Amino acid sequence: MANILAVDDEQDILTLINNALKKDGHQVTVVQNPQQVDFEHLVGYDLILLDVMMPGIDGFTLCSKIRDWANCPILFLSAKTMEKDIMYGLDLGADDYITKPFGLGELRARVNAHLRRESREKHNLLFSSGFKFDLSAKEVLVGDHKIPLTKSEYRICEFLAKNRGQVFSKEQIYEAVYGYEGESDASTIAEHVKNIRAKLAAFELNAIITVWGIGYKWE
């Protein structure tokens, strides 16, 4: 079973998608207003279906925003069949383009094919607040740019990002990063956080928030 997000301004289309994909055991979340897409929870989806022509924000624009938050297949649904439109959508980061009107059998087959491929090629990545963590390479990226973190700085960022929204004292962070056998003390965490913020500032980003009198959290 996969968690799938479908965004389309036509309720009838959303109902058809929901009914079709549920036959394969998938959990489907439908959103009719594209401006109500919750970017904070995109990481929880295994696949996203996007209509192109929608009021307020079109699917192309939404896709470019989503790609900073989600590392899953994105499939466009659109009546636009011109090659230039298809190529533009794929260049934005989409994985496939299904033209309307489409058969429900085709939709199910395309969705399941991408889910199978994703399960084979799944990378060990974490997306949080516009940052991409490569958990295997122990790197943090903004877009295609690697942030030059030291080993300790990376560990602090990964720990806080994995526990997003929770507040930790310097002592708790130190213990999580270095364990009980650390050779320094918790006061070094503040210095590391200062250095991390300076490096993130180069990208006009900062995800580590100070909670005065308590510690830090990733926001």
From TrEMBL:
Residue ranges for the DNA-binding region feature of this UniProt entry: 123-219
Pfam families (alphabetical): Response_reg, Trans_reg_C
Keywords assigned: DNA-binding, Phosphoprotein, Transcription, Transcription regulation, Two-component regulatory system
Name of the protein in its database record: Response regulator transcription factor
Start and end residues of each Response regulatory domain: 3-115
List of residues that carry 4-aspartylphosphate: 51
SUPFAM superfamilies: CheY-like
Domain OmpR/PhoB-type: residue ranges: 123-219
Superkingdom of this protein's organism: Bacteria
Matching InterPro entries: CheY-like_superfamily (IPR011006), OmpR/PhoB-type_DNA-bd (IPR001867), Sig_transdc_resp-reg_receiver (IPR001789), WalR-like (IPR039420), WH-like_DNA-bd_sf (IPR036388)
